[in-house]
Specification:
The complex is a heterotrimer of chains A (846), B (195) and C (431). Chain A is an alpha/beta fold and 846 residues long. Chain A folds into five domains: 5-97, Roll (Ubiquitin-like (UB roll)), CATH 3.10.20; 132-273, Alpha-Beta Plaits (2-Layer Sandwich), CATH 3.30.70; 278-355 and 490-671, Rossmann fold; 360-485, Dimethylsulfoxide Reductase, domain 2 (3-Layer(aba) Sandwich), CATH 3.40.228; 740-843, Barwin-like endoglucanases, CATH 2.40.40. In chain A, a hairpin with a 2-residue loop joins strand 12 (237-243) and strand 13 (246-252). In chain A, helix 2 (83-98) crosses helix 3, helix 8 crosses helix 20 (610-620) and helix 9 (330-344) packs parallel to helix 20 (610-620). Chain A is globular. Chain B is an alpha+beta fold. Chain B has two domains: 6-71, NADH-quinone oxidoreductase subunit E (Arc Repressor Mutant, subunit A); 77-157, Glutaredoxin (3-Layer(aba) Sandwich). Helix content of chain B is 43%, strand content 9%. In chain B, helix 2 (26-37) packs antiparallel against helix 3 (42-52). The two termini of chain C are 39 Å apart. In chain C, strand 5 (230-231) and strand 6 (234-235) form a beta hairpin. The chains are: A alpha/beta (846), B alpha+beta (195), C alpha/beta (431). Chains in contact: A-B, A-C, B-C. Chains B and C meet through helix 2, helix 4, helix 5 and helix 8 of B and helix 7, strand 3, strand 7, strand 10 and helix 14 of C.
Chain lengths: 846, 195, 431
């Protein structure tokens, strides 16, 4: 866009602003703060609150205009300090306060309330309103997470605009008219949205509050640091706030590169799980037969090291397996990669269990999120942004509204399907055809294509994902790729997965080559002597609870974990890991941007950072990783070459977002961003208390002095090597009349240890269902609410849900059945294979 | 109460089909729901949302904005006494007081037999017959104590059944027209006479 | 009695029937337009006539049409949501001459090349809605509507949309929102005119019922004949709605500028004066949004510019008469209460200010006022409409909020003594 400048005056001083800028933004840039309530920089302006009125001289003389709504124009004369402006603003403020309750002392917003701030700064201090104020029943829970106090509401339209415009879920709207205008959900139906917490964050008063934070703390008691949400790898920037060594809440920071201040509820409320001490692993423990006992760190580490050592000695290094399916910090991932490669020297390593594609394709010509959203055509491949990278869904919606053309290639419709330009079905029998259709849909706009490549459908294995992506890249040689898998970016970045084994490799190290699926299967067969599980739940990786019971007889399971889970309950050795917010560090996100992790509270009990545990195990195994401090890990990473060459912490002192890697990709300047105090009052207010927000100084934990085992034999050569991309792609066998392909897709609230530990989110976990279009239902003789039996690799009973939206987007001849929701049971249908054929039987009610 | 009955549903779909954007049918469908049930029930709003492609909260937001759309059950006859300036100057508040006495209910109330709901309304554009009142949006005036009593009596006796249908039935004349000319056809025609 | 245009049929008992319509020149304007004239020629006649919009703002209809953005799809919306207190002329035209309305709307659609016409009628006009629907049905039946009207190449549909009870929907952008199935929130400006971005984002002309009801006559008799009536910018005739404390309230069609308010209120063929024992204390010349006039303003002619020059507006053409038995405090309160009830709630000053002013005035009326309330009232008015001047300045999106101050300030400034009696003695001097 050409930078056309216009010249105008603010209070008789000349200024220049880019054409198309909103007057209020131009005034902000000039350092003139006009008070406002309804304006939010990430939403369309509505000019409702009338607080930002300024005088503008136009052809018909001077008039009061809402600065949030009008664009700058050449020759415009703007007055922000005139008597008329002050009187109008004072008048609006008085009107807003007229019916506003005087309950600031018990209001969660007190201390960080824009209305309160305005009233203190510009209010008269005395009320002329002697009438009875408006009364409403309050507070009304509009969901498990959000409470509504209508008396405090100033009708700014922010929450309703968010729900409609940003989230695309107009579940709250105004009701009534005039003085009775109020916020309402439909007939007290829940505000059931993945994004509900945002409405509380952007509420300029205390009308919408989050249940987890209600009455928890006062803003002036909070301290905060900048951090990155780790619930998925999108990398949403957050302000992590705490009081008296307890995490109190998380707020979204406006990162231009990533989350535009939005968060999903799963991320926002993750602090409630961290604070649930009952379900946290606080101390190391060892299991002896059926009994588990807490032990000291040294005892636990010695046992772990002994198990590893014994396995290496007896069965070779490759009989030690390491697996992870969640997002660990970059430092922890790297330390474990180094431990596996250089010390244990095993190839049975996969730190990105969820990533089912050849990650080298993700790294060849990577796209940033913003590049993806401004592409000539964006191709979504096997990814469901809403359920996997929720805030990406919001960014995509906004981009589509602004004109982005999207082609979706999925086995199962997503919530974006109705608004994308082309939705193309991925089915085993028509892979080639699907790719052809994508190419046809792109037409001649091939210059600036970005592909978001994910691993959404579990029925769609790594080999298929890789093949589709490869085919697309062959046909679209210039296309950039954005990683669309929610977990595993750090593992890819440091080569801690067979899907990306060549990224960082210290000379002579062992390359990962056994996929998580193969590790799980091998462990059940007894192929391994020791299985190390890094903060993951084995039942999410394809094991059943019954499997876990027998697993211990065949292999020593070492579980490093933040939360209790089926895995920790059955593991021989359990080591407590720091939770989110308890350790300093960093991470890379889906676009390979380096982002900081803030430490805001002390680790619970004896929990430690994962990198430290790796360092201590290395020394017990008679080697050294050379990591005594976090800086040591970083120094190593900095010099490791490859993707992360040049990594460091220093840039975080200047900017919220770190740089993109490799550093040669630095296409967008990481300028410090002025935060609109009205957009994020909770952050601004805590910032004002002097918390170390931007700097996030590294507090150095250090490694306890380890003690070495007897120097053992050097690790043996690899025994078994399976390539991570799994099965060979072949044309599928034809389906029998009553057979279907199984599509198994994840949901945001699929059961997991951190969700189970979250008192505010656990209730959102729902049973998986067989999701059918009404037409499919008719064909199968299944109705909404029926129960059915699905027969695949295992047999599973499921409820049936008919989804009208599917009628529009599922091909009428589709031979795919969709199971919505990952649980140990639904995963057992697959048994880690791709394109399983299933049959369905109706269960007749008793 | 209920979603649209089969008969009402076909009328609803016909209404939706008239508009270039289905959401435009929201208010006509709310009137239709009132014709069926006397008011706009939650079930009807949810049904309307499905038919026009809005969320139920949006339909509620629209319906609750308008005075004629009742989200709670009302009497068979909703009597609205106008007290706005032109009627007030000619004795509207006296009529309203009489009405409360005659019906034995305050403004906003419904008689126990479910026959009458009393409202105080803004100008109904019947000022040359002030003070005026509407019964299910059928106009009467000028009114005084006596004529109001007689109006109520006639309503009770069913003498006005032809003139005043039960609350919710607004337009008894149905649209009789050929199918709507498709916008695309009009677009093509009009494209010719663009400058 | 002056020339009658829109009210020509009102003398007949059966004015609403098709037979009466056809027997009295019905369809002739439309036939002439679609069979003998090009659309621009129709528009030119309307421009020549200098037909001022009859909805309230008095904008030239021809100029409005000329601002229509040229796009393949354009809409015509007829605003029949007449709800301005004491205004009942559209009600009359809708109920008593629905065929004329449909004919006028079709002529307008032809002139601007509308893809679709929606007649948005106030929901409370149940009888009018039925009669207009009947007229539309009959128009289709005789090919005065639909495909190839009267054998011409012009095709258009008319839809009848009932409102649902919200004064604000008379504001044209609010009406469009309502027509899109939403709350009637007026749209924020810019864009200033639906002619640029209107219904469904397409260019849209919104014309008042009385405005288009003039079109059959204009097409038949020519714009010049219309312009020959009245004077200056105020051409043709207007249907004035006289109400309040006069002997003979009612609708009176008069040639513009040719009679004065005194004539209208006291004239034998019009209002026939007040009750013999009473005297005039004030009258409102153009709907309750307008500043009040007092006995000294009686000799102002009924013309748009003439009334504007005297500091008020002809607005919707409704004249409300108050005699000395009425209480100005009560009148001001009732008007303020109306606006408070009808505020859409979008803008803070109108939503909160309107409700506040309503409460203060009611308190004064009930004898609970304080002297400080009078300054407070004026200051609150000033915060809604800075300067309380005419035409009003505004701190709001639309003019509903700024319509509150004229009555309040007129009453407080002109009848201060009445307020003081309420406040100091707790009684109404007119009771």
């Amino acid at each position: 866009m050409p930078d056309e400048l216009v010249s105008l005056t603010f209070d008789e001083h000349p200024f220049q602003a880019q054409k198309g800028t909103k007057l209020i933004d131009a005034l902000d840039a000039a350092g003139i703060h006009v008070p406002r309530f309804c304006y939010h920089p990430r939403m369309s302006a509505v000019g409702m609150c009338r607080m930002c009125l300024v005088e503008v001289k136009g052809p018909r003389g001077v008039s009061l205009q809402p600065s949030c709504y009008i664009d700058v124009a050449d020759g415009m004369e703007v007055f922000t300090e005139s008597a008329a402006v002050k009187k109008a603003q004072h008048g609006v403020l008085e009107f807003l306060l007229a019916n506003h309750p005087l309950d600031c002392p018990v209001c969660d917003k007190g201390g960080e309330c824009p209305l309160q701030d305005q009233a203190f700064a510009h209010g008269s201090g005395e009320t002329r309103f002697v009438e009875e104020k408006r009364h409403y029943a309050k507070p009304i829970p509009i969901s498990r997470l959000i409470k509504l106090d209508r008396e405090r509401c100033i009708q700014c339209d922010r929450c309703t605009r968010f729900a409609d415009e940003i989230a695309g879920e107009p579940l709250i709207d105004f009701a009534g008219r005039g003085g009775a205008l109020r916020i309402a959900t439909f007939s007290n139906v829940d505000f059931d949205s993945y994004f509900s917490g945002n409405v509380a964050q952007i509420c300029p008063v205390g009308a919408l509050t989050t249940t987890p934070y209600r009455f928890k703390a006062r803003p002036w008691d909070l301290v905060q640091s900048a951090s990155t949400c780790m619930e998925c790898d999108l990398g949403c920037q957050v302000s992590l706030q705490s009081s008296q060594n307890e995490l109190t809440r998380m707020l979204g920071i406006d990162s231009d590169a990533i989350n535009h201040s939005w968060l999903c509820d799963r991320g926002r409320f993750t602090t409630s799980a961290v604070n649930n001490l009952e379900l946290r692993v606080a101390r190391p423990r060892l299991r002896d037969q059926s009994r588990s006992a807490e032990v000291s760190w040294s005892k636990a580490l010695r046992a772990a090291a002994l198990s590893i050592k014994r396995t290496i000695d007896e069965r070779g290094a490759s009989a030690v397996a390491i697996v992870s399916g969640t997002s660990l910090s970059l430092e922890t991932t790297y330390a474990w990669a180094k431990l596996a490669s250089d010390v244990i020297r095993t190839n049975a390593v996969d730190g990105a269990a969820d990533l089912r594609t050849d990650a080298s394709l993700l790294l060849e010509n990577p796209a940033s999120i913003n590049q993806a959203l401004s592409a000539s055509k964006l191709v979504l491949v096997n990814v469901d942004p809403k359920n996997e990278l929720p805030v990406m869904h919001l960014r995509l919606r906004a981009a589509i509204r602004a004109g982005l053309s999207v082609i979706e290639l999925n086995t199962t419709p997503t919530e974006l399907t109705p608004i994308v330009d082309h939705a193309i079905a991925l089915e085993p029998s028509r892979l080639g055809q699907a790719v052809d259709e994508v190419i046809a849909a792109i037409g001649d706009q091939v210059d600036d294509v970005v592909i978001v490549a994910g691993s959404r459908d579990r029925g769609f294995g790594a080999a298929l994902n890789t093949r589709v992506l490869k085919d697309l890249l062959e046909r679209l040689p210039g296309a950039k790729v954005l990683n669309g898998t929610p977990h595993g970016a750090n593992a890819v970045a440091v080569g801690f997965t067979p899907n990306a084994p060549q990224v960082i490799r210290s000379s002579g190290g062992v390359t990962p080559s056994v996929s998580a699926d193969a590790i799980v299967a091998g462990a059940l067969r007894g192929d391994f002597g020791t299985l190390i599980v890094l903060d993951s739940e084995l039942t999410r990786l394809g094991m059943s609870e019954a499997d876990l019971e027998v697993l211990g007889e065949r292999v020593t399971v070492i579980a490093l974990s933040t939360f209790e889970s089926a895995t920790t309950h059955s593991a021989a050795i359990v080591l407590p890991l720091c939770a989110f917010g308890e350790e300093q560090g960093s991470t890379v996100n889906v676009e390979w941007r380096h982002l900081r992790l803030g430490r805001q509270v002390e680790p619970l009990g004896q929990a430690r950072s994962g990198w430290m545990i790796a360092a201590e195990l290395a020394s017990m195994l008679g080697d050294e990783l050379g990591f005594l401090t976090l800086a040591d890990v970083m120094r190593d990473l900095n010099q490791s070459g490859g993707l992360l060459a040049g990594l460091g912490y220093e840039y975080f002192a200047e900017s919220l977002d770190g740089p993109l890697f490799p550093l040669s990709r630095r296409e967008e300047p990481c300028a410090p961003r002025i935060l609109d105090p009205m957009a994020t009052p909770g952050i601004a207010s805590v910032d004002r208390q002097g918390a170390n927000f931007a700097a996030g100084r590294v507090v150095e934990p250090t490694v306890a002095t380890g003690f070495a085992l007897d120097p053992g034999k050097s690790p043996q050569a690899l025994v078994s090597a399976e390539r991570g991309t799994g099965d060979v792609v072949r044309d599928p066998d034809p389906l029998a009349e009553d057979e279907f392909w199984l599509s198994l897709v994840p949901r945001l609230y699929d059961v997991s240890p951190s969700l189970s530990a979250n008192p505010f989110l656990a209730a959102w976990v729902r049973d998986p269902v067989l999701k059918l279009s009404p037409l499919q239902g008719e064909q199968l003789g299944l109705m909404d609410g029926d129960r059915c039996r699905l027969i695949g690799a295992a047999t599973v009973e499921l409820g049936v849900e008919l989804t009208k939206a599917f009628d529009l987007s599922v091909r009428s001849d589709s031979r795919v059945l969709v199971v919505d929701g990952l649980t140990p049971a639904t995963l057992s249908l697959l048994e880690n294979q791709s394109w399983i054929k299933v049959r369905v039987e109706k269960i007749n009610g008793e | 109460m209920a979603r649209f009955s089969d008969d009402m549903l076909s009328r609803a779909k016909e209404l939706v089909s008239l508009y270039p954007d289905p959401r435009s049918a929201t208010i006509p469908l709310c009137h239709l729901a009132q014709e069926q049930d006397g008011y706009v029930s939650d079930e009807a709003m949810a049904h309307i949302a499905e038919l026009v492609g809005s969320s139920a909260a949006e339909v509620q937001g629209t319906a609750s904005f308008y005075d004629m759309l009742k989200l709670e059950p009302v009497g068979r006859y909703v009597i609205g006494v106008c007290t706005n300036i032109a009627c007030m100057l000619r004795g509207a508040y006296e009529v309203l007081e009489d009405a409360e006495k005659v019906l034995g209910i305050p403004v906003g109330g419904t008689t126990e037999d479910g026959l009458f709901t009393l409202e105080e309304v803004e100008c109904i554009a019947h000022c040359d017959h002030a003070p005026a009142a509407q019964v299910n949006y059928r106009y009467f005036g000028p009114l005084d104590d006596e004529s109001f009593r007689s109006l109520i009596a006639r309503l009770r006796d069913g003498e006005l059944d032809d003139e005043v249908p039960p609350h919710g039935t607004l337009i008894r004349v149905r649209r009789e027209a050929p199918p709507a000319i498709p916008m695309t056809e009009i677009d093509r025609e009009r494209a010719g006479d663009q400058e | 009695m002056t020339e009658r245009i829109v009210g020509a049929r009102l003398g007949y008992e059966d004015s609403e029937t098709l037979s009466r319509f056809l027997a009295t020149g019905g369809d002739q304007g439309l036939r002439r337009a679609v069979l003998e004239m090009r659309p621009e020629e129709v528009a030119d006649e309307v421009t020549t006539a200098n037909l001022l919009g009859r909805g309230g703002a008095g904008f030239e209809a021809g100029r409005k049409w000329s601002m229509l953005r040229k796009a393949p799809r354009r809409y015509l919306v007829i605003n029949g949501d007449e709800s301005e207190p004491a205004t009942f002329k559209d009600h009359l035209l809708v109920e008593r001459d629905p065929h004329q309305l449909v004919e006028g709307a079709t002529i307008a659609a032809y002139a601007i090349g509308a893809s679709l016409v929606v007649i948005y009628l106030r929901g409370e006009f149940a009888l009018g809605l039925e009669r207009v629907q009947q007229a539309i049905n009959e128009a289709y039946a005789r090919n005065a509507l639909g495909r190839s009207i009267f054998g011409s190449s012009f095709s258009v549909d008319i839809l009848l949309q009932p409102g649902a009870g919200a004064y604000i929907c008379g504001e044209e952008t609010s009406l469009i929102e309502s027509l899109e199935g939403k709350r009637g929130f007026p749209r924020i400006k810019p864009p200033y005119f639906p002619a640029v971005i209107g219904l469904y984002g397409e260019p849209t002309i919104v014309n008042n019922v009385e405005t288009v009801s003039n079109l059959p006559w204009i097409v038949q008799h020519g714009g010049a004949a219309f312009k020959a009536l009245g004077e200056g910018r105020s051409t043709g005739t207007r249907l004035f709605a006289l109400s309040g404390q006069v002997q003979r309230p009612g609708p009176y069609e008069v040639e513009m500028t040719k009679i004065t308010f005194r004539d209208l209120i006291y004239g034998k063929e019009y209002g026939q004066g007040l009750h013999p024992d009473r005297s005039l204390i004030a009258f409102i010349p153009g709907g309750v949004s307008a500043p009040w006039f007092f006995p000294e303003n009686l000799d102002i002619p009924l013309g748009q510019d003439e009334v504007a020059k005297a500091g008020s507006m002809l607005g919707s053409g409704s004249v409300i008469v108050m005699d000395d038995t009425s209480c100005p405090v009560r009148s001001a309160w009732r008007i303020a209460r109306f606006f408070a009830r009808e505020s859409c709630g979008q803008c803070t000053p109108c939503r909160e200010g309107g409700a506040w002013i309503d409460k203060i005035l009611r308190r004064i009326e009930e004898g609970e006022g304080r002297e400080a309330d009078l300054d407070l009232l004026l200051d609150l008015c000033d915060n809604i409409s800075p300067g309380i001047k005419w035409p009003p300045a505004q701190t709001t999106i639309c003019v509903l909020g700024p319509s509150i101050p004229p009555s309040v300030s007129a009453a407080v400034n002109h009848f201060r003594d009445d307020f003081l009696v309420h406040i100091k003695e707790g009684r109404c001097p007119h009771a």
